[in-house]
Amino acid sequence: MPRGGSARLPGVSAGDVGPDDRPSELRRAVAVSDRVSILFVGDVVGGLGRRTLLALLPGLRERLAPTFVVVNGENVAGGLGITPKLADDLFAAGIDVITLGNHSYHRREIYAYLDQTERILRPANYLRSQPGHGWCVVEREGVKLGVVNLSGNVFLRAGHPAFAEADAAVAALTKAGCDHILVDMHAEVTSEKVALGWHLDGRVTAVVGTHTHVPTADARVLPGGTAYITDVGMTGPRGGVIGVKKEQAIESLVTMMHVRFDTAEDDPWLNGVLISCSGPMRAQAIEQLLLPWTPPPA
Ligand SMILES: [Fe+2]
Ligand SMILES: [Fe+2]
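That is the input. Now the predicted structure with fe (ii) ion docked in place:
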């Protein structure tokens, strides 16, 4: 079972520029001078979240011209998990890497896909015996981006410590010649995410938090050059309770009884960040993207 690996993107770097035989110093110099940016989109929730992402992505590509697009997709299948078809749909839309989280294994049909598909990641600090892998490398325009998915250890089930696994993944990706590394820290508590940002500052390009579905107002570039945000937020129905119909969430909290949860359908927004890179493993800016979407009339 692979724990990581590289993936050449079909029709992009492999076909357009051929194998990158340039010395690493030259490739890094290009990575410094070229305009490299990463669009990261927070947890995409349900069909409305998918439609919001797919509707807004072409305009974002035109306006921001991101080199890479990374999406957290742990909620795309009706709010819980992801299926092979839905993952294929995201890849077909040009998403470079899909990260996941605590809902990675909600849909059993994704297990083999997680083992076989390099560019979809479950948290790297899960057990080796669990399906999938936690980091990968993608390449566009001669620039190598390593992506790492991690799970927090507080209030979430992860078999290994996030910080130790982060160090191991960053060492492996640096050794693999990555120009930039993006870490998606999928965690419940803010302190774990803030601490990981400081821990990796200067060693990776960006640490972005996911899972709580509520965007935080602390996006910044840390002193060592790592872009950081505690939570990117979610892409989907803002008119619910972190993606669930608000009436059902309220009823469960009022009655303290089990209530069936459905995905909300009101007020779709895209929550994301654009990370503008400078030198290798360095960001010069992180811009928060909080964008409403008006669905076309039915
Ligand atoms: Fe989520
Ligand atoms: Fe989550």
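Residues 46-64 form the longest helix (19 residues).
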